[in-house]
Amino acid sequence: MNATKQYDLTIIVPVYNEEDNIYSLEKALGEYLPKAKVSSAILFVNDGSKDASLNRIVEICGRNEHFFFVNLAQNRGLSGAIKAGIDTIQSQYTGYIDADLQTAPEDFNLLLEHIDEHEMVTGIRVGRKDSFVKNMSSKIANGFRRSMTHDGMLDTGCPLKIIRSDYAKKVPFFMGMHRFLPALVQMLEGKVKQVPVRHFPRVAGQSKFHVFNRLVGPLMDCFAYRWMRKRYINYRIDQTNV
After folding, report:
1. Range of the domain at 223
2. Structural domain contains residue 236
3. Beta strands, E only, the chain
């Protein structure tokens, strides 16, 4: 039996070359689980790391009952890691948090307060602790994305989200998918709620994003999303005798 089936929420943690953060993740996530509003587990997805991340993930999963992992044979990027996690879990709800700990696991409880009435609840980072260049590039990309998708999301890049797993598993997969999760859930006729959450500076490891993949990549992906949205087949079965 898939171990995640016994939990209400499984939190996906994509990891790529984050060896310096693994033990901090163990502490932060381990401290959150007893406080979680629903029974929760952690699923680390090692995205083909080239450092000691995998060894440390295996180590901490060995001593924490509610920690699990999958290891991708090759690096597939953030969207690939999230998709692998979604395909793996069998809990009712799917959570997502970045390995850099710039958001707090405890704030999942703020999102959980609204998940019964929505198919997705996503954070809005308050008082962002990023560099000027990173903040400005994110604002530009977010503004363009909103104009293209009309999803109404103020901070689609916030790495703190909860989605109903049945919706998460129906989200169309493509590179850059993680930037459009709220819009994709809306495309599936799901309701999305935004909730303010805390934000902290990165204290270890290095960001995997720069001006090019924070601006050029999202702009190109917007056109891919628009193309897909016009051609996506969404249906509901009204009656069957199967």
Report:
1. 3-231
2. no
3. 9-15, 40-46, 67-71, 93-97, 120-125, 160-164, 192-197
Report how far residue 162's alpha carbon sits from residue 179's, in angstroms, rounded to the nearest whole number. 15
The neighbour count for residue 209, using CB atoms within 10 Å, is: 16
This prediction's pTM: 0.84
Report the CATH number that the domain containing residue 48 is assigned in CATH: 3.90.550.10
Rounded-to-integer distance, Cα 19 and Cα 83, Å: 22
CA 25 to chain centre: 15
Mean pLDDT of 135-141: 62
Asked if residue 138 belongs to a domain, the reply is: yes
Contacts of 28 (CB under 8 A, 6+ apart): 101, 104, 105
Helix (H) or strand (E) holding 109: helix 108-112
The answer to whether residue 239 sits within a structural domain is no
> Is 201 a member of any domain?
yes
Residue-wise pLDDT for 14-59, tens only, equals: 999 999 999 999 999 999 999 999 999 999 999 999 999 999 999 9
Dihedral sign (CA 25, 26, 31, 35): positive
153 against 167, higher pLDDT? 167
For 18, 20, 209, the CA distances from 72, given in Å and listed in that order, are 15, 20, 20
pLDDT in tens, 189-226: 999 999 999 998 877 756 555 555 555 666 777 777 77
